């Protein structure tokens, strides 16, 4: 049984089988869950048609699999350890039984407030257990949750609520992260001015600051759960019913609401966590992501609970109150599996090594990274200073669209190489494509990364826009899922992700569309036109570099940059703020009016010796001006 792959030979064999007979492969794993009714058809549909389905006709509830299923055997086991923003604040552990009760209570509240199967519920909350409880309560009653990262602005929140016509918003009064305070309820109030579909707002107390209140619309979480029953019968879902929507940025237009479904997502998150991390019953698993991103959905909430693991919910930041915070938490809870982003590693390795050495990290068994390419220096620091050279590093490549980890070492099983995501999980068939759209068969190769065969965890659509779904993922390389990433494969067949090949930036592991940022900058009355590119940044991985053509009289450029940054923070989020802004008189455009971003990228990274072919530019002299220009 391949439920847990235990050796590299076994991996190779299981992989081979998974390619020869994908349906049989997934059926075996799917059989380990609790289904109320067995599925009718293991797999149907295709990339060409954009109608992939898995386990259709199967009836289940994912929360029953996360919680109810474990109560008899491990009701008293810790499901979540909550570590607050400040180490001296109140911390707590929640057992599987307690979590089950809390989720049932809140599921009853949601139903009482008129939420039923298929309704969309937006969640905009601090990283506390209540965020997981709200999420699981939605899933338990069949409501489609749409979590919005609490770092997003009122406008971004509103846009996401409107796109899916959410009926309810669940939020906090506010949150604290590091020494920052974010007034979530105020931001929600502002967002809801343009969201007519939201009938009810449930507010969970966290900061106890004064907030404004809309009678009849707003209600306190703690009041509502007081009399709610702790018994709740989970709503039966079809495997292909939507479980959640999660918005992510693309190269054009507004964020796309990725739709994940109950059955396939359940199977894939559980399977990937178990095999990549080689997790075992007594392990303490900590993923430092925010639940507002897919990493948090899959590997803080669903994956660990499905596997009956104890996980940490961390409200804070890597550097508050000091840069030893991660390692302090690892020591305190004897964390065995630690999963974070390269950007955090790069930030922490700049600090005094004292902050690491102070703590006993001997409980660690596996270290993981996710979200962006990891440079070799950071990889080695992580390996030596945190893992003491004894913990396998799993560099996990995947995306919001994929639902779970796709290419990654299996901890302790797959040989690792710094900077390499290494090999695909069984069931996943990657390929590299050349410019002509043909698959490159040579082992050593470089090209666009595609996936050749559907897998259970993949996105089933873009909410309300199936045409865009088809266009974005299945048109460039017909018959394949196009990831948007470039990739290199070495002589051993190991994969190394080189980064996005479209106009998507990856800033500190956050995915941002250049068009989105440009649209925000263009809102400034003095900006005529702008173009945004990424450039190498030693902590963030990629920084945001904005070029803008402006009307005369912008005044002091530093002050102007602040105006632009405030605007981008307000429209999108502080994470999208340009690191650099250069005022320019023109942009390098082709005769057909397309901005040649390649040139801007070179200028932004200070590499202007060879700009390549500029003969198709409408006005090549613009380039000279841009090179001479100054960035702030
Ligand atoms: C993009 C997806 C996966 C959850 C968090 C991000 C980049 C992701 C890696 C990695 C190199 C990576 C890709 C991908 N990426 N993991 N291990 N090595 N690049 O999810 O926000 O949907 O972003 O993140 O460019 O396409 P996301």
Automatic annotation (TrEMBL):
Presence of keyword Ligase: yes
Enzyme Commission number, as recorded: 6.2.1.1
InterPro entries: Ac_CoA_lig (IPR011904), ACAS_N (IPR032387), AMP-bd_C (IPR025110), AMP-bd_C_sf (IPR045851), AMP-binding_CS (IPR020845), AMP-dep_synth/lig_dom (IPR000873), ANL_N_sf (IPR042099)
Transmembrane segments: none
Segments forming domain Acetyl-coenzyme A synthetase N-terminal: 11-66
Domain AMP-dependent synthetase/ligase: 68-463
CDD domains: ACS (cd05966)
Keywords: Acetylation, ATP-binding, Ligase, Nucleotide-binding
GO biological process, one term: acetyl-CoA biosynthetic process from acetate
Family in the record: Belongs to the ATP-dependent AMP-binding enzyme family.
Protein name listed in UniProt: Acetate--CoA ligase
Native species: Halalkalibaculum roseum
